[in-house]
Amino acid sequence: MSEIKSDQLIALENRIEEVKNLLHELEESARQLREQEQHQEVNHLEDYLNETDKEVQALAVFKDEVVKEIKGLIERIKDKMHSPGSH
Predict the structure, then answer these.
(1) 86 Cβ partners below 8 Å, 6+ apart?
(2) The pLDDT of residue 85 is above 90
(3) Which long-range contacts (CB under 8 A, 24 or more apart) does 69-73 make?
(4) Are 61 and 55 in contact (CB under 8 A)?
(5) What is the pLDDT of residues 20-73, one digit of tens each?
(6) To the nearest 10°, the Cα dihedral for 47, 49, 51, 57?
(7) What is the Cβ-side half-sphere exposure of residue 59, based on CA atoms within 13 angstroms?
(8) Residue 65, Cβ neighbours under 10 Å: how many?
(9) Count of CB atoms situated within 10 Å of the CB of 77
(10) Sign of CA dihedral 64, 65, 66, 72
(11) How far is it, in rounded angstroms, from Cα 29 to Cα 23?
């Protein structure tokens, strides 16, 4: 009877080792998946920044015209504020 218990104990210890190994493998897989997702997010952000930079550079061509229009608008607003009857 004691031999049966010893065999059961050995089987239980072996099963515990198997579960520990499986847990270790799952933890490693989860770590690798997190790293992969982080790399994908970083790549996505990098692509987004590159595209945004291209858009800003494309719009920079019109900067002088836009600034001129905004200054003109401000001047028109000031003139309207200072004209008689606008208060």
Answers:
(1) 80
(2) no
(3) none
(4) no
(5) 999 999 999 999 999 999 889 888 888 888 888 888 787 788 888 888 999 999
(6) -150
(7) 8
(8) 9
(9) 10
(10) positive
(11) 10
For residue 38, CA distances in Å to 34, 42, 46, 50 come to 6, 6, 12, 18
Position 16 confidence tier, pLDDT thresholds 50, 70, 90: very high
**How far apart are alpha carbons 68 and 44 in whole angstroms?**
36
The whole-number pLDDT of residue 51 equals 87
Amino acid 47 reads D
Q: Which two tokens stand for residue 20?
A: 């520990």
